[in-house]
Design brief:
By secondary structure, the protein is of the alpha/beta class. It is built from 9 helices and 8 strands.
Length: about 230
Amino acid sequence: MTVTMGSAINLVVLGPPGAGKGTQGVEFARGHGIPQISTGDILRDAVRSGSELGRRARATMEAGRLVDDELMIAIVRERLDREDVAGGFVLDGFPRTVAQAVALDEIMTGRPPLIVIDIAVPDDALVARLARRRVCGACGQATSVDLSPESRCGRCGGELVLRSDDTESVVRERLRVYADATRPLVDYYSQRPSFRAVDGDRSPAEVGAALAAAVDAVLAERAAGRAPAGESRA
């Protein structure tokens, strides 16, 4: 699908597991009236379905490994061909490898260029943060036990549970995998005019404000002509 160049915001949010990519992506997308596309949600839906794909994805995720590039590229390509992304989108969980980023550049041909924001958080802070995270078994909403000590979901009232991939040993493995496979994305994107890094070791509101300011700065530069709107790798 080809869309007209204009004010569309096509945002990729990078960061290690637990950095808050999902939370920030949802809030930004809601505020701008564009879809938030989480590959993690798509995979967890497959796990809950009990399909062959779901069983493969579950085994991979619980071991702290990444789903293969071919699968993720196909999922994202199909999703970005839908009409609701014409005004922009927020991608959470993709790309995770340089190969995926190269494929995404190809998918973005003829579309407004990507804005890439990296949310940076130290490993020890992430381990502590994920140890406090709980997910609703009914609707999938994530929250912290600090915010919901009664162990019920604030959205639907469902029971909050610890995800099997949020235990310390699995979190450490996920961070190792991130460092090996996903961190090189920062090198891949960092020389682009539309790349920004924000400090994620702050409150969600502070991180959200920093992310919004970073996007605004990129858009202002683009409007001033320093990053041409049609530049496919900007």
